[in-house]
Amino acid sequence: MTTWAAAAERLGSLHEVTVRNVVRTTIGGTGLRVRLTNAFGAEPLTFGHVHVGVPGSGASLEPHSNRPLTFDGAPEARLPPGATALSDPLPGRVLPRQRLAVSVHLSGPGTLTGRNRATTGDPGFAPAYRSPGDHAADESGAAFTEEVAIWHWLDALVVTAPERAVAVLGDSIATGVGSETGHGWPDLLAGTLALAVANEGVSGGRVLTAGTGRSAEERLTTEVLTKPGIGTVILLAGLNDLGHGARADDLVAAYRRIATKAHTAGVRVIGGTLTPYAGAEYHTPAGERARQTVNAFVRDGGAFDGLADFDTALRDPGDPARLLPRYDCGDHLHPSAAGHQAMAAAIDPARLTARGT
């Protein structure tokens, strides 16, 4: 099952480089496997070497922790455009909430598929370090002189464990924008409930059309449901659509399709109400009316297996179209750290662990 994940965004191109991606598991398990992606590549990618180690200080690794991965027994992985590759399992156990460094050597040129880490408030945590050449096997961090806020080509970490994972299908609110602590509500959910959580948020992401990544509807089938062990999806996306003039009826129809596709795959769907955003740059009276219509459907439309009423959790009782001031990071769109905590608390754990539809 999936213990960590990132949604795919198109982020430029690189050539003959090693990237040390630093991530954190949600739950532990055995037989760690790494999934790489070439989601947006126009040409094949060749990864010469991929290693997994335990981070030390900066880009350095703990002594004797860096282990090579293989792909169908070979050290090299070649991914055609749009493809993913799942490594062979590593012997041993990884722990819950364990930091791991996945060092990926790109041999030759390639399109960068990754995800921006929106917040950097976690002390001592950087998403990735880059170095020219092949340094995947290095335990020293000396070659990794460039620190970047992007995870590169890393699609998921997979372990063998009895639990099922929860995927969050969302936008920048899922990635943690606004939380000065560096932890968004999916991170808090994973830590509080000891759940495996796959964060499939994309900053600027929409439900109906592509943005920096695919549309949420497309990502459900190409990215979320293809990851091992997903038992429940929490859907919270649509504000960016409304901000660009989408109609409530179109969002509702997309929500119905998303729920149907998930149910066909045996996956439950928790519907999240769209959070208040009056005062945000793209808020309009028409968008607010559409938000209310969409939220009425999420609460009472019968398409979902449960409700996460983020709107009620975050709104100002005196002005329900707005975030409560202490839950507002300041842009009137993204929740503050306290707001992300309130969102995590709004989810019923029993709904996440139930099986079947």
TrEMBL record:
Residues 168-342 form the SGNH hydrolase-type esterase domain. Gene3D superfamilies: SGNH hydrolase. It holds the Pfam family Lipase_GDSL_2. SUPFAM superfamilies: SGNH hydrolase. It comes from the Bacteria. This is Lysophospholipase L1. It comes from Nonomuraea solani.
